Amino acid sequence: MKTGWLQGLVVATHGRHCWIETDSGERRLCHPRGKRQTAVVGDRVWWQPSRDEGTIEQVEPRRNLLYRQDAVRTKSFAANLDQVLVLLAAEPVFSESQLNRALIAARAEGLPAIVALNKSDLAEPFQQAWSRLQPYRAMGQRVWPLSLTREAGLSDLRAELEGKTTLVLGPSGVGKSTLVNRLVPDAAAATSEISRALNTGRHTTTSTTWYWIDRSRHTALIDSPGFQEFGLHHIPAPKLALLMPDFESLAGQCRFHNCSHLHEPDCAVRAAVGHGITPQRYRLYAELYEELAAAPRY
Ligand SMILES: Nc1nc2c(ncn2[C@@H]2O[C@H](COP(=O)(O)OP(=O)(O)OP(=O)(O)O)[C@@H](O)[C@H]2O)c(=O)[nH]1
Ligand SMILES: [Zn+2]
């Protein structure tokens, strides 16, 4: 740290420009010092004021960074998280592949994940979605029922978020905006302030945004787009089974220690398909394995 540098928290980004919050709660637009520096939401930074804006001098080392990577690019969701909340709903029908990818990405960063299933008021589709989540509950994944248009489940969820920084991920239409509006009373005002500052002229769901749930600024939600195209190219294929809890304990029991669980003899994973591992989960694994094995490594 150098004299004149101040501490800040990145609460939104647009390109390489950041909207930061000071320790006293004041917010300001900052620009990066160098070409290579990129701050993401959740980053702690050192910055220097220049007139009514500022310059980011340095990004503090990160505890963790959740990101996705496909053949074309790497995109960060956010840094320094405590947990990930995957928001799904009875409708629209969710993609199990996307859910699986989000859980794997969180686990690869050592982040606990909660799955919340919204729209419990829609009885029949909810039941169907809930049973599709059965293998996840069986493997120890926490799954919460929720109805954001009613009060159901909201106080439990609030308790779960208390004192933590939670990244919310979910496909379009599940109720992410409804969730933010229920939990963050002045979310709309915060959003328009950020849009003005970063001059995006768009709405929150198009860019990652940090919200404080409480006035004392201890509990935070980060809303982020990008659930749809969840590339995991940064994960080596041989590690995949260790990041899927229902595969993990079996993976060490195969004849070959480097078993891919795709075609080797005496494979404990394949032997468990149909009991312990569902055929659907095994299909997700095999597809993802092929995808990761084919991805170029740098
Ligand atoms: N029946 C029912 N509808 C809900 C519930 N929660 C949210 N909705 C509705 O679902 C629709 C989508 O909610 P949004 O909050 O806009 O969803 P979103 O995830 O922000 O969607 P995008 O803006 O597309 O990313 C809205 O019409 C909500 O009113 C719920 O618990 N039950
Ligand atoms: Zn095996």
Quick overview:
It contains nine helices and 13 strands. By secondary structure, the chain is an alpha/beta fold.
CATH class of the largest domain: Alpha Beta
CATH topology of the largest domain: Rossmann fold
Major sheet, described briefly?
6 strands, mixed
Q: Provide the gyration radius in Å.
A: 21 Å
Q: What sequence of helices (H) and strands (E) makes up the elements?
A: EEEEEEEEHEHHEHEHHEEHHH
Residue fraction in strands: 25-35%
Strand order of the largest sheet: 10-9-8-11-13-12
Average pLDDT taken over every residue: 91
* Tally of DSSP β-strands: 13
Please give the domain count.
3
Q: What is the overall silhouette?
A: globular
GO cellular component, one term: cytoplasm
Subunit structure: Monomer. Associates with 30S ribosomal subunit, binds 16S rRNA.
Subcellular location: Cytoplasm
Cofactor: Zn(2+)
Give the SSE map.
Elements: E1 6-14, E2 17-22, E3 27-32, E4 44-50, E5 53-59, E6 65-69, E7 74-79, E8 83-89, H1 96-108, E9 113-118, H2 123-132, H3 134-138, E10 142-145, H4 154-161, E11 165-169, H5 176-183, H6 187-198, E12 209-212, E13 220-223, H7 245-251, H8 268-271, H9 279-294
Parallel strand pairs: 3-5, 8-9, 8-11, 9-10, 11-13
Antiparallel strand pairs: 1-2, 1-4, 2-3, 4-5, 6-7, 12-13
The structure holds guanosine-5'-triphosphate and zinc ion (ZN).
Please explain how this structure is put together.
The protein has 298 residues and is α/β, with parallel strands linked by helices. It folds into three domains: 6-59, OB fold (Dihydrolipoamide Acetyltransferase, E2P) (Beta Barrel); 65-223, Rossmann fold (3-Layer(aba) Sandwich); 237-294, Orthogonal Bundle (Ribonucleotide Reductase Protein R1, domain 1), CATH 1.10.40. It contains nine helices and 13 strands. Strands 10-9-8-11-13-12 form a six-stranded mixed β-sheet, with helices on both faces. A five-stranded mixed β-barrel has the order 1-2-3-5-4. The protein starts with 5 loop residues before the first strand and ends with a helix. The model has no long low-confidence stretch (mean pLDDT 91). The structure holds guanosine-5'-triphosphate and zinc ion.
